[in-house]
Amino acid sequence: MKILFLFGAILCLAGCQSPKASSPQVQSAVPADIRNNCYSLLHQLLSDEKDVSKLRFIKREEDDIKSLVKKIAVRSGAGAKQLETFAKHDKTIVLTDLRLPPGEEATRKAIASTKQKELLGQHGQEFEMSLFLTQAEALSYGAHLAKVAAQNDAVPERAQYLAGLSEELKGLQKQLVDLMLSRAKVMAPAR
Asked: Which fold has domain 28-184?
């Protein structure tokens, strides 16, 4: 039961967990609001992704997959910590400003539940493919969140960090897609 709980906590691989906190404010187009919302969503995603390498305790992957997943987890953990440092030094940064509409919240819960059931029941190549897909989604979403946060942050050093994080997440996504494609070629039947 303990492993299922840990697995459930880890399964928010694509940032599809429901928000931990929500702001009652109405969405506005003020850059600080956009920045805080992006910071919050990015922090939530990176915090979830930092634990993805713990899957190795429940499921077995090939070494190349395990290595890349660990790389994603390490980068995500460092990114989450950096966002926390930014918020610590600038009290205008809020990491709990998710402001998701109720329909989005419910959809994220449904997706997380579905992915949990799928991954718990999968093994081998089927599990690896699902893991690839969820990670590719999460990395793409994170890269875009970081890019939009950078565009809405008036502090050049933070904007530069976020733009760099966006590029790193895109790079990890490309590595993941390349690995997925190489696996697909190996699995493809000969014609």
From this structure: Ferritin (1.20.1260)
Tell me the whole-structure pTM to 2 decimals: 0.79
- pLDDT, residue 117, reads 82
Nearest CA among 67, 17, 39 for reference residue 165: 39
Q: Which residue, chain included where needed, has tokens 């590595």? A: 175
pLDDT digits (tens, 9 = 90+) for 55-107: 666 666 678 888 898 999 999 999 999 999 999 999 999 999 988 999 998 99
DSSP string of 58-85, one letter each residue: TS---HHHHHHHHHHHHHHHHHHHHHHH
Handedness of CA 179, 180, 185, 186 (dihedral sign): positive
Helix, strand, coil percent values for the chain (each to nearest 5): 75, 0, 25
Going from N- to C-terminal start, the domains of the chain cover 28-184
Which phi-psi region, left, alpha or beta, contains residue 15 (left: φ > 0; alpha: ψ -120 to 50)?
A: left
Count of H-run helices and E-run strands, the chain: 6, 0
